[in-house]
Amino acid sequence: MKYLLFLFYLLVFVWMLRRIAFFRNSGLTQRQVQIVFLVKVFAGIFYGWVGIFYSMQGQLVDTWWLHIQGLKEGPLLRSDPGSFFAELFRNNYKHGFGRFLSSRDSWWNDLHTNLFIKLLALLNLLSGGFYFVNVLFFAFVSMIGSVGLFRVFHQIYPDRKWAVFAGSFLVPSYLFWTSGIYRDALVALALGLILYCFYSGLRKGWTARYLATLFSGLLLLLVFRNYLLVVLLPALVAWWVAARSRRHPMLVCAAVYAGYLVLFFNLRYLVPALDFPRVAVEKQEDFFTLIGNSIIPAPKLEPTFLSFLANGPHALELTLLRPYPWDVYNFFVLVSCLETYGLLALFGYWLVRRNRGQPLEPFLAFSVFFALSLFLMIGFTVNFLGAMVRYRSLVLPLLVTPMLCSLAWPKRQKANALVK
Known about the structure:
Keywords: Membrane, Transmembrane, Transmembrane helix. The chain has 20 helices and no strands. The protein is mainly alpha-helical. It starts with a helix and ends with a helix. It folds into two domains: 1-224, no CATH class; 225-420, no CATH class. Helix content is 74%, strand content 0%. Helix 7 (131-156) packs antiparallel against helix 8 (161-169) and helix 8 (161-169) packs antiparallel against helix 19.
């Protein structure tokens, strides 16, 4: 039965790829879109197999734990749908719906897991509760976000389609972590739609469709990764200002972020609930209580500007340079290490071979500032290599794609020399 369901939904999604205008107008052929989907399905299946491997070692990973919880919710959904949905709004905390960004005793922190489990229970009505049938749905959903990124970069680099293709779809950690049954697939969907609609709104005007999709994406982030809003919103503001300014986009973004830095450390004096430094410290302390094989030592963070400044080099060292070769203790860390140093090698090659004549798009300045601010947030709060690799993978296409597209390839240089 599960194989028939898998084949049925696979054919349905392949058919939908041909019918939905968002994919048809992406700049990819129908066959290319279908190949991308199949690659993501394979990555999602591999994601599940990795979970089975660790389960056999006595460690139930998140994706399978969530799947099991979704199955447990099935009887309640069928017998009492009212209670099934009402449970989402049940709040046993004395402070009610406060502590919005906190990872402790927070309804908001519980919501992203509770809602995801409810979504899985609803999805099981269609999939029969089969894990690998559900993979098809998540691969399709996350692919929408990846295609959104592709469409933005393809407009910026219309003559570099294959470089855009590789950067948008084939960065290994991004492909792996966003194709499986986990919140990262929904976050990839949200980010892709937000960036596509924001870019399109700036260029073509803010239609109702763009605005509705943009706010839907922000709502998804609010529910499933609310801390991302802390770094995404100032980056969007910087992008908007840079797009309307005649000054260099990097200078504009730097000025906006300077103002944001002041707000980050001082807004708590005006609105105590928005104590961003304290939230970061709490998140780091929560990671310190966890146990795992990939734990690494980290300096303790304090909710002060000087502490963040002193910890900045370690934060960037963690997210830009690790895993080190001596961090490798299994196959998966080895793959992460190879990706890390492969991307660093690409960056070094880009420094030497980049095309210096290309004007800098405001979106590219946004990508740099958004990615680096997220890297800092991860480095400040996370002390597990596995979690760090997963969190940073979400923005790697924003850095890899521009590097691939702005390389001055030898053949292109030779052709240009002949023209001259």
